[in-house]
Recover the amino acids of this structure.
């Protein structure tokens, strides 16, 4: 049977996923066209102005959902977990799997890059390396020490995800300890969680326009000419990213959870499109969470923790970029890294991905640490700067797919995955009806809110 969005597309009403896919394709065409035309007025007022404004509003709207959604869904997750030992098990499993997938990703990247050997015989001409400085690698001890916030309000305000997760889990455990006295609080959080998911649906309905503007802006600004000099790097990177996405991750899903990778891929597609358009795992958290719970069938008690945790500590795509870029630059500069050098890259990329948030361009910052550590010139980054936005978009898709795969595996292994939902092609598909306001209920609410006549 054809996927839900195709059936709906040809039965009349377009499904939301179909509309978003159309927005993306149109964005690609319009953006490329504007790039070729290169008219100053359009570049300034349409691309930089209108598209920039709508795209930013859309990403901001997604970001505004992240912190409240994580807080309320996680409180409900901890309160509803039933057995507190399960929380420790879920955390341990997810952490181990996240580390494992990132380590596999970067090893695969170094292997692919060594075989394809991009960068040999590269001509260094016209490279502007000004303004690129190395960032120090954070110490492992600091990364862990900083997980405990001194001020939770500060952590919420800054969106410091690991601190938020830590604080909310402690809060959730205290809620469980208070037992019956927490009943009303938990009910309130459940309601807030539902409310947040409703806002996710509202924002998702604007996605076709938001995605169109983001993609059109990127492609209008990124000319094909940027890709020609570093084509070998781009081809190697994209090959490694696709290998990890379609082979490693899907194999893991099948081996560890015995689930159909094809069904999984259809269900995670909306989150992948959002990740591609925004280049931010963090901003995509609400959509990844929705896909993992409502389309794939993972229980809130697992997904409310594993999804935001993964968006922060798990960056398979970013790690792959570190590996390919390091080998590429080593070849460009004719420097031999040796086994020890490669092991350093693997260790550092895994560690760096734990300590850094999933936001656009953070991969480049991590790369400065890696290059610094193995003694490669930081200025080399200027070579790949021009193509980084598009590479960022693709690696973010890999990042969030990794988060969803691990969340699904952990949920399945803990008996917290509703297989009927996973197998139902229509589960959680948005049609637009869910945004209709129930007029009778609205009138009743307004009545209840009106002050009584005396
Ligand atoms: N943009 C990526 C993310 O948000 C991080 C990166 O590779 O720059 O996951």
């Amino acid at each position: 049977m054809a996927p839900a969005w195709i059936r709906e597309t040809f039965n009349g009403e377009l499904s939301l996923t179909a509309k978003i896919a159309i927005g993306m394709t149109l964005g690609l065409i319009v953006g490329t066209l504007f790039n070729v035309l290169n008219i100053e007025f359009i570049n300034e007022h349409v691309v930089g102005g209108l598209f920039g404004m709508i795209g930013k509003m859309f990403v901001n709207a997604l970001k505004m959902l992240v912190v409240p959604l994580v807080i309320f869904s996680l409180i409900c997750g901890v309160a509803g977990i039933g057995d507190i030992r399960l929380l420790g098990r879920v955390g341990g499993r997810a952490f181990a799997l996240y580390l494992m997938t990132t380590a596999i990703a970067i090893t695969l990247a170094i292997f692919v890059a060594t075989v394809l050997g991009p960068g040999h015989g590269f001509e260094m001409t016209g490279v502007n390396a000004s303004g690129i400085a190395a960032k120090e690698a954070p110490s492992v001890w600091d990364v862990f020490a900083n997980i405990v916030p001194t001020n939770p309000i500060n952590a919420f305000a800054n969106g410091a995800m690991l601190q938020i997760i830590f604080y909310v889990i402690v809060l959730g455990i205290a809620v469980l300890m208070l037992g019956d006295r927490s009943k009303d609080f938990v009910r309130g959080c459940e309601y807030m969680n539902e409310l947040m998911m409703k806002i996710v649906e509202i924002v998702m309905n604007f996605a076709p326009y938001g995605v169109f503007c983001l993609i059109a802006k990127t492609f209008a600004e990124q000319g094909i000419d940027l890709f020609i000099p570093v084509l070998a790097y781009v081809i190697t990177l994209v090959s490694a990213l696709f290998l990890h996405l379609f082979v490693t991750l899907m194999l893991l899903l099948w081996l560890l959870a015995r689930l159909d990778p094809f069904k999984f891929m259809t269900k995670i597609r909306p989150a992948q499109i959002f990740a591609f358009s925004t280049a931010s795992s963090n901003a995509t958290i609400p959509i990844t969470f929705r896909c993992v719970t409502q389309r794939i069938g993972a229980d809130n008690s697992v997904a409310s923790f594993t999804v935001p945790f993964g968006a922060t500590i798990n960056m398979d795509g970013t790690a792959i970029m570190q590996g390919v870029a390091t080998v590429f630059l080593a070849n460009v500069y004719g420097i031999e890294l040796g086994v020890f050098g490669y092991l350093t890259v693997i260790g550092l990329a895994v560690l760096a991905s734990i300590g850094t948030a999933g936001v656009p361009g953070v991969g480049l910052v991590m790369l400065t640490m890696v290059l610094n550590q193995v003694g490669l010139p930081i200025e080399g980054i200027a070579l790949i700067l021009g193509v980084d936005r598009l590479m960022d978009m693709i690696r973010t898709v890999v990042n969030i797919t990794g988060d969803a795969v691990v969340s699904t595996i952990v949920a399945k292994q803990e008996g917290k995955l509703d297989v009927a939902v996973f197998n139902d092609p229509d589960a959680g598909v948005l049609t637009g009806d869910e945004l209709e306001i129930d007029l009778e209920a609205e009138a009743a609410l307004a009545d209840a809110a009106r002050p009584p006549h005396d």
Notes: Residues 279-281, 315, 318, 358-363, 392, 395-396, 399 surround aspartic acid (CB under 6 Å). Residues 40-79 form the longest helix (40 residues). DSSP finds 20 helices and no strands in the chain.
